[in-house]
Amino acid sequence: MPELPEVEVVRRGLARWAAGRTVADVQVLHPRAVRRQAGGADEFTALLRGRTLGTPQRRGKYLWVPLGDGLSMVGHLGMSGQLLVQEPEMADSVHLRARLRFADGGTELRFVDQRTFGGLAVEEAEADDPEATPVSLAHIARDPLDPRFDDPAFATALRAKRTTVKRALLDQTLISGVGNIYADEALWRSRLHYDRPTATLTRPAALELLGHARDVMTAALAVGGTSFDSMYVNVNGESGYFSRDLDAYGREGRPCRRCGTPMRRDPWMNRSSYSCPKCQRPPRA
DNA sequence: CCTTTGCCCTGAATGC
DNA sequence: TGCATTCAGGGCAAAG
C-alpha cells in the first residue's frame, strides 16, 4: 500500500519519465478515478490537453504535477493506485482508469487502480509558484521528510490531542505520509503500544517517535519502498524491497526481532495492528 | 471545536 | 464445487 516512501518513489519516476512532456490526449476509463474533479471527466481532459508537465511535487501521500497558470494535476494512489509509464503497444490492464498520451508519441502515463480509492484531478494552486500547494491540500500537514516540518510544534500538538498514539500518527492533518505499515513500524521502534494516550507521552518520547517514523520511512525509500504483491510498484512496474525489513507489520506469530516473543495482530479500527506484547505494553485500562 | 464512525470499492482468502 | 462472507485500508462527510 502506498505510503510516503512509495509515493516518493513514484514522484521521482514521474520526474524522470514524464516531466517536460506535453499532453496530447487524455482518456478517462472510469469516472470514479476523477471524482474529485468538479466538472467530471470532460473538464479533467480539457484542462490537461496541451499542457506541459512541470516537476512533480509531493506532500505526504499526495502528489501533484504543476501545469502552469496556477493549475496542477493532483493525484492520490489510495490503496491500490499505480502511475505507470508504459509503451503504447503494451496491453491495457483491466484496471486501467485513465491514460495520458503525449505529443512526442512516446510512452504513455497510465493510472491503474483496482480498488478505486485513488484518483486524479486538475485543480487550482494558491499561486503560480512551484512551492504552491493545491488548495485542496491545504489541510494536509507537512510530512517528516519535508525540511520545513516543525518537530517541536509536532511534539506539542501530539501531546495536546485527546486521542491515542496510533490514531494520531495516521491523522494527516497532524503529520502526513504515515499509514498503517509505517505507523506500526515507528511504534515498534519506539516500544509504544498503539492505544497509548498521546497526552501521557513525555516530550522526549514524542520526539523519539517522530524520529523513528522519519528513520523508517527514509530507510524504506532507500530500497524503493514496501511491496507485498502487485499493489505497489514504481512507474516502471518494479517492486520495492522494504517488506523484508519490516519489524512489525505482517509479522503475526513470528518472533520479535528484539526479544523473540511472538508478535501479535490485533483488530484495530477495522484493520490490524501488529505489535510485540512484551516490548510494547498496553496502557492501563 | 475536537474526536469518532461509516462509507466508498474489488479481489483474494476463508467459511460453510 | 460453489456460493456467501470477511478482510484489506486512506480520506472524507457526517455524527457524536
From TrEMBL:
Binds 1 zinc ion per subunit. Residues 247-281 form the FPG-type domain. Its cofactor is Zn(2+). Keywords: DNA damage, DNA repair, DNA-binding, Glycosidase, Hydrolase, Lyase, Metal-binding, Multifunctional enzyme, Zinc, Zinc-finger. InterPro entries: FPG_cat (IPR012319), FPG_Glyclase (IPR020629), FPG_N (IPR035937), H2TH_FPG (IPR015886), Ribosomal_uS13-like_H2TH (IPR010979), Znf_DNA_glyclase/AP_lyase (IPR000214). GO terms for biological process: base-excision repair; response to oxidative stress. Residues 2-118 form the Formamidopyrimidine-DNA glycosylase catalytic domain. SUPFAM superfamilies: Glucocorticoid receptor-like (DNA-binding domain) (SSF57716), N-terminal domain of MutM-like DNA repair proteins (SSF81624), S13-like H2TH domain (SSF46946). The keyword Cell membrane does not apply. It catalyses: Hydrolysis of DNA containing ring-opened 7-methylguanine residues, releasing 2,6-diamino-4-hydroxy-5-(N-methyl)formamidopyrimidine; 2'-deoxyribonucleotide-(2'-deoxyribose 5'-phosphate)-2'-deoxyribonucleotide-DNA = a 3'-end 2'-deoxyribonucleotide-(2,3-dehydro-2,3-deoxyribose 5'-phosphate)-DNA + a 5'-end 5'-phospho-2'-deoxyribonucleoside-DNA + H(+). SMART domains: Fapy_DNA_glyco, H2TH. DNA binds at residues 95, 115, 161. It comes from the Bacteria. One of its GO terms (molecular function) is zinc ion binding. Belongs to the FPG family. Involved in base excision repair of DNA damaged by oxidation or by mutagenic agents. Acts as DNA glycosylase that recognizes and removes damaged bases. Has a preference for oxidized purines, such as 7,8-dihydro-8-oxoguanine (8-oxoG). Has AP (apurinic/apyrimidinic) lyase activity and introduces nicks in the DNA strand. Cleaves the DNA backbone by beta-delta elimination to generate a single-strand break at the site of the removed base with both 3'- and 5'-phosphates. Monomer. PANTHER family: FORMAMIDOPYRIMIDINE-DNA GLYCOSYLASE. This is Formamidopyrimidine-DNA glycosylase. It comes from Kitasatospora cineracea.
